[in-house]
Amino acid sequence: MLNKISAFFYRRPRLTLTLFLAPPLIWFLVVYIGSLITLLVNSFFYLDGFTGQVVRQFTMQTYAKLLQPTNLQIFQRTTIMAILVTLACVILAFPLSYYMARFASPRMKTWLYLAVTLPLWTSYVVRVYSWKLILAQEGIISWAARLVHLDGLLNWYLKNEIVGGPSLSVSPTGIFLVFVYIWLPYMIVPIQTALERVPKSLLEAAGDLGATPAQTFRTVLLPLTFPGVIAGSIFTFSLTLGDFIVPQLFGTSSFYIGKAVLTYQGTSNNIPLAAAFTMGPIVIMIVYLLIARKLGAFDAL
Amino acid sequence: MRSKPSEPSSARASWALKFGAFGALLFLHVPLWLIFLYSFTTDESAYSFPPPGLTLKWIPKALENSAMQDSLFLTLRVAVLATAVALVLGTLAAAAVYRFDFFGKDAVSFMLILPLALPGIVTGIAMRSAISLLHIPFSFWTIIIGHATFCVVVVYNNVVARMRRSSPSMIEASMDLGANSFQTFWHVVLPNLSSALLAGAILAFSLSFDEVIVTTFTAGNQQTLPIWIFSQMLKPRNRPITNVTAMLVVLITALPILYAQRIVSRASDSEGGSK
Q: Looking at this predicted complex, what is its ipTM?
């Protein structure tokens, strides 16, 4: 009996393929792509200001709202934050990745790899929580600042309107630090993978031909590992754009995209505006992914 | 003018490099150590450093806390069911992509990674708008649907990677020796995939166990553990218990992950050895 069924399917590969592919495909088309389409459709509806109900009629007025100065500012603020976080992650990730790829013994490398990826799999909320402890007014950073008599400098820094706030745990600097901390492993892994592929002989050749370490880095190492940097930046950039937890917990009253979406959807039930807002990161990320594919970033994943 | 004697053939890392590498490593790990430290602080109302004193009394108190327990069990149930769905869907997708050539193959793997590649808030708000459009009440099940969707890709990645590394000749040999597809699957394919499935399941489990962004949008009034911790951060009511819970969550997810890493690395080691 089983043999017959087996032979039946063996002779009909198309049918077997359909049986394999149908469940995941249907799940994703219905649950995921369907949801995304609903989101897109919703962004063309609008919220009636008087009744507080969503009016299901095609309109561009919700998108027009996005162009209001306050909302444009939210996009600008979030994008700048995402760029800064990405840059900081690249700068922090390079030395460690380079050390792992070039100098660590195989045993050491396994350990380092584990040390880098373990935080990635550790609870996101808990990792955010740890910074609540660190940045608190009575926390370790203030303590360390007092210890080396730099608390005056810290207070002066916090008075600055652009980067500061009442305390480090309620300031753009706080948001920035937490983002960098949370997304850093996403940057280290692809950069390290890309560095592993750079043949040692190329670096030696550059040195033999008289390049200084800085020149070797700029003209040989960086171009060759650039796809890895792009691959990592996809994560750091995208995750920063969409996050609402960190701005909610460490931010002043100023909005970021994620926080805006949550607020419009949650308190004012304005799903159309929330939907239109999320189109921002989607469009930015699709363009980013297409460019990344052109630059060969997916080979480094 | 050529290679200076002070820079030999880069056999050893410079101090600056070591400092940078070690610094990044500390930056990644010190915050987690602090969570462990704060679980034992006697300070109830603030996050003072250094802790005024150390105590063990919060651990039993946190374990007995009923709100924490409810959230923990809800989170475990969600994670188990979401992982089960992800295992089935991810393995089927991996088998289809590995075994067959079909139109839109790249699109399928692209679609599977999309829920992880797009910001979580997009998945969250999209699902919320779809669920409310269909007038489905937000519940335990809507959380699972959301979680399963982004867990599929980790199972898929693990399984498809294993399939690509194992040689098809094993399957051919089994068939040549007279086994039918089911026997071949049971005796050859499944044992070969088992550790990849286990690793994928552990990763999916911890992904679901930790998730907070999508859950915010797909949950009704259910509070998973991450959401409970998040609400405690917004309005700290019970700091010592939150500290202990945070430590607990780290332990629950980190230990299985360490195990999963070992499975994966052992599998690739043994393959490397046989070649």
A: 0.83
